[in-house]
Amino acid sequence: MKYFICIRDDVNSHLIADRLHSAFQENNFICDEENPELVISLGGDGTFLRSVHKYIDKLNQVSFVGIHTGKLGFFCDFTRNEIDEFIHDILYEKPKIYSHPLLKITHHDKEYYGLNEVRLENPFNTMICNVYINDALLENFRGNGLNFSTSTGASAYNRSLGGPLIDPRLNSIVLGEIASINHNAYRSLDSFLVLHESSKICIRGNFKRCLIGYDHLFESIKETELEDEIYVSLSSKVVKVLHYKDVDYIYRLRKAFVAD
Ligand code: NAP
Ligand code: MN
User: Fold this and answer.
1) Of 57, 74, 129, 233, whose Cβ has the fewest other Cβ atoms within 10 Å?
2) Does the structure show a pLDDT above 90 at 138?
3) Would you state the pLDDT for residue 209?
4) For residues 243 and 169, is the Cβ–Cβ distance under 8 A?
5) pLDDT tens digits for 78-108?
6) 45 assigned to active site
7) 121 lines ligand 1 (CB under 6 A)
8) Mean pLDDT across the stretch 28-51?
9) Buried b (16+ CB within 10 A) or exposed e, 103-116
10) Is the pLDDT at 70 greater than 90, yes or no?
């Protein structure tokens, strides 16, 4: 088995990585950063996102598994106190594989992917655009931006915007407004909209000084036109995550947001 460990840069994560390397190499696993079949993300949910983006062009040949060195995470089933169990499971158990679809945001011929979310934002001026869902005009939006979250990403930035938490087994797209302007002259939906997984969104407007955000990454829009178009939809790319134990979503929510 060819594997790689993506590590958050802290002492604890490095110590655990050393233990994993020894155990795997004793069992003839080969560490291969270029072409791993198994990627172990060691750190937090943020580390998991970075691991996925490192292999964004090789997702069909890689499976991911997460260890959280802090609390229990949304992408990580194991914590730092369960390393022996983790090694045992990787060596001897058969996991369930869950495929997380990625959101795609497209501007001209450039595509960006988000496991948590993709965003179109203008942090400097009012972003003005028309929002179409499956070719039907929803609204003329004015505000700082629009956030499109996956169901799994709903507990991340979407939640901070006041958006709903969504059972990750429902493949949805959650559209959320970032600081929309709503008064007598301008009005948008001003509510979160949970869309069907097949929805195709088109945003039409002038995107001068706008940013495309995708998970922890972003790109500034350089070539702008008076009337430009950006598309958002669920992509055919999926992140394969290995689950060696059933960690209930409600249990994750409780551990993350209610009580430790
Ligand atoms: P980051 O430090 O990597 O992550 C920010 C926080 O979000 C961390 O506490 C991280 O957990 C947590 N997180 C990531 N994915 C999550 C998920 N699916 N459910 C619940 N919590 C999650 O920050 P970054 O590099 O700027 O961006 C990475 C992600 O963080 C983005 O995709 C965005 O969703 C989120 N974020 C949220 C806010 C906000 O809520 N205001 C602001 C910026 C970014 P760990 O501690 O386990 O890594
Ligand atoms: Mn254009």
Assistant:
1) 57
2) yes
3) 95
4) no
5) 999 999 999 999 999 999 999 999 999 999 9
6) yes
7) no
8) 98
9) bbbbbeeeebbbbb
10) no
Label residue 34 left, alpha or beta by phi (over 0 means left) and psi (-120 to 50 means alpha): alpha
User: What is d(CA 139, CA 187) in angstroms, rounded to the nearest whole number?
Assistant: 8
* Whole-number Å distance between alpha carbons of 156 and 102: 15
Sequence ranges of the domains in the chain: 2-95+244-258, 103-236
Using the atom order of ligand 1, give the atom closest to the CA of residue 153. Answer: 18
Q: What is the mean pLDDT of the chain?
A: 96
The reported pLDDT for the residue numbered 225 is 87
Can you tell me which residue has the tokens 């004793």?
Answer: 26
CA 36/CA 251 separation, integer angstroms: 31
In this structure, are residues 212 and 203 in contact, taking their beta carbons and an 8 Å threshold?
A: no
Candidates 18, 74, 79; CA nearest to 46 is 74
Q: Tell me yes or no: is domain 2-95+244-258 CATH 3.40.50.10330.
A: yes
Active-site residue identified among 10, 32, 45, 109: 45
Partners of 174 in beta bridges? 149, 194
189 CA to middle of ligand 1, Å? Answer: 26
- Say how many C-beta atoms besides its own lie within 10 A of residue 157's C-beta: 19
pTM of structure: 0.97
Per-residue pLDDT tens digits for 157-213: 999 999 999 999 999 999 999 999 999 989 999 999 999 999 999 999 999 999 999
**Nearest ligand, measured from the Cα of 255:** 1
Calculate how far, in angstroms, residue 197's C-alpha sits from the geometric centre of ligand 1.
Answer: 23
